[in-house]
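Hi W., the 8-OXO-2'-deoxyguanosine-5'-triphosphate complex you wanted:
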Amino acid sequence: MWVVAAALIAADGRVLVQRRPPGKSLAGLWEFPGGKPEIGESPEQALVRELDEELGIAVETRDLTASAFASEALGHRHLILLLYICRIWEGAPRALHASELRWVDFAELNRLDMPPADRPLIAALAKLI
Ligand SMILES: Nc1nc2c([nH]c(=O)n2[C@H]2C[C@H](O)[C@@H](COP(=O)(O)OP(=O)(O)OP(=O)(O)O)O2)c(=O)[nH]1
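Structure:
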């Protein structure tokens, strides 16, 4: 399973995370916004679409910087999670799919309950920003 996700980074260095809603797999855990590419989409096109659907923001593919990936078993599937950094977007993110959004610094990011694939990504992100 391939998933693309974005670390949106605000001017003050905080990162946006969203909470997975009840009824979904991994409900209640915090994640980077994103999702699965559809057939025929590039990873960057998929992420632009997901950020529009999930947060209502407009992002240009050129403003997505490929940054890190994680490879983790997830139940009986195997997840490859591609993380992009994004610092430029239009609009104010709203929780259109998530139960909650939060802008967090790295100390908070490390304390949040996130899926296992996200742990190594946070460590990688800390070195990149
Ligand atoms: N967007 C996102 N997904 C993540 C992260 N970490 C992580 O393990 N995932 C997993 C959760 C989901 O299984 C999958 C993303 O799928 P999705 O959000 O598009 O769809 P979904 O919840 O319906 O997925 P699922 O029920 O098939 O697991 O990737 C993350 O940081 N961001």
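The longest strand covers residues 64-74.

W.
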